[in-house]
Design goal:
The structure holds 2 protein chains of 2 kinds. Chain A is mostly helical. Chain A has 6 helices and no strands. The longest helix of chain A has 26 residues. Chain B has a single domain, classed as Orthogonal Bundle (Helix Hairpins), CATH 1.10.287.3510. Chain B is built from 3 helices and no strands. The longest helix of chain B is centred in the C-terminal third of the chain and has 31 residues. Classes of the chains: A mainly alpha, B mainly alpha. The interface between A and B is large, with 91 and 78 residues.
């Protein structure tokens, strides 16, 4: 168990997230995104954030990406459904993203070398500790997020419902 | 000490910032170069996850549990956003029989 485990997992996440945006088939793209989120789960385990690892595993890989896959298979896309963007626009997009990357990395480089991450409290990311913080300090945002989820559910049902043809 | 958590002892915080930056920019490039609405949506999810990872890393670095609670809230928000967004995409497909974002340039069907 060495320090290189972090760099190996980081390499895997970058590699698979590049595959996500460059894969031709949207189903392959979603499968690569699942692998990317699995590498994020491993990063959370390395940070000893066990609650976040489990929630990331269940919510992202279990719920959100299955929903993506469901919708993609529901839509029944043909092969010609995505005409290729012109190469000029693709090149401009890549150049713009690289400019953002260079700017952010440059601003990071201007910092002095930071201290290594040291896990000071072993129980920081455990469910017991996070539950205490969540239900004492963050009780009001927790309740508001339940209202958010309810309104999102109502809105999704309302949007996806087939509207009658001659409503007027 | 748990041996799995010893692996991060010695990773500088800058490297977590660099990893999150790279993945965030990959998400931005994905939004810019794809035309499939679902792929664009997935790139937005990628950006959200990059920020989540950075929040968790800062939370461990500063020994403060608030960052991880924030990640939990962001995940709840992402779930709500995905439900509404996919409903919108299904509605767009029903009206235009395509999820190419180029047919939406008039904002009317």
């Amino acid at each position: 168990m060495s320090i290189s485990l972090f760099y190996f997992i980081a390499f895997l996440s970058i590699f698979f997230s590049l595959l996500v945006i460059f894969a031709k088939n949207p189903v392959h793209s979603i499968l690569y995104l699942i692998i990317t989120f699995f590498t994020f789960t491993m990063q959370y385990i390395l940070l000893n954030a066990q609650f976040l690892a489990i929630v990331n595993f269940i919510v992202y890989m279990g719920a959100i990406l299955v929903l993506f896959l469901f919708v993609l298979m529901l839509l029944n896309l043909n092969k010609e459904s995505e005409p290729l963007k012109s190469n000029l626009l693709k090149t401009i997009g890549v150049i713009a993203g690289m400019c953002l990357l260079v700017t952010l990395i440059g601003s990071t480089k201007s910092l002095q070398l930071s201290n290594p991450i040291v896990l000071q409290a072993q129980n920081l990311g455990l469910v017991k500790n996070l539950g205490k913080v969540l239900f004492s300090e963050f009780l009001l945002p927790f309740e508001i997020s339940s209202i958010l989820l309810l309104s999102a559910m109502v809105g999704a049902v309302l949007l996806a419902k087939r509207e009658p043809k001659d409503a007027s | 000490m748990n041996p799995i958590t010893q692996a991060i002892q010695g990773v500088p915080l800058n490297h977590y910032i660099l990893l999150s930056t790279i993945i965030f920019c990959i998400g931005v490039i994905g939004v810019l170069i794809r035309r499939n609405a679902i792929i664009i949506f997935m790139s937005v999810e990628l950006m959200l996850n990059a920020v989540n990872l950075l929040l968790a890393a800062f939370s461990v670095y500063h020994n403060n549990a608030s960052g991880q609670v924030f990640v939990f809230f962001i995940m709840a928000l992402a779930a709500a956003e995905v439900a509404v967004g996919l409903a919108i995409i299904v509605m767009i497909y029903r009206n235009t029989h395509s999820i190419d974002i180029n047919v939406l340039n008039k904002l009317k069907w």
